[in-house]
């Protein structure tokens, strides 16, 4: 299974809009290091049957798909309904036109209900043959229970994202956990045995809604994955600093990174 990192930045990306010259706020990140430029967090899984599953539709989606040469997928998993994870939903109309059918959207019932309230027209039935708007069919998923998505078994599970919840994604021995700072006990059991874990790490100091470096180190000790890949990183997380200071088994993602994991 191939994983493409479409974006690995926080809700404002890196650099954030602003700065003395209007060209961005970089924080601790060196602007000369291209891997410090981060769009909003999203990945695409290319399964063993060649089906594509997108996780989240952030505001940078069109540019991300073009930059990574992605022209098709059939399913979307939504982790939660915050704007940096859903506001590019209209862009999937281009995918509808390529595959000539509606896309399938999976997530927690409350997440899909929230997205449907904000993008009600996207979830209206398709009237063939043309796509004048994006067309998506909602499939609520019970957390912690296996669900077949694009012919492959997934488990979606609950996460604590500050004052709200979010959804983690497990496929085989790969787990994606963006926008999380704690896990309910049932979800810890879902994490057991993970090999490659892509996980939120917004900054070095504690945060009220996102994991930070010390919290990630605690999870490494508790869950013991072979490989942890940091995502949803803010302007505190400089690429070279991470290269120099992260312990063995933990590495930063970057926009456009591609890696493979065992097929589920």
From TrEMBL:
The keyword Nucleotide-binding does not apply. InterPro entries: Metallo-B-lactamas, RibonucZ/Hydroxyglut_hydro. Gene3D superfamilies: Ribonuclease Z/Hydroxyacylglutathione hydrolase-like (3.60.15.10). CDD domains: metallo-hydrolase-like_MBL-fold. The keyword Hydrolase applies. One of its GO terms (molecular function) is hydrolase activity. Keywords: Hydrolase. Residues 39-232 form the Metallo-beta-lactamase domain. It holds the Pfam family Lactamase_B_2. This is Metal-dependent hydrolase. It comes from Acetobacter pasteurianus NBRC 3278.
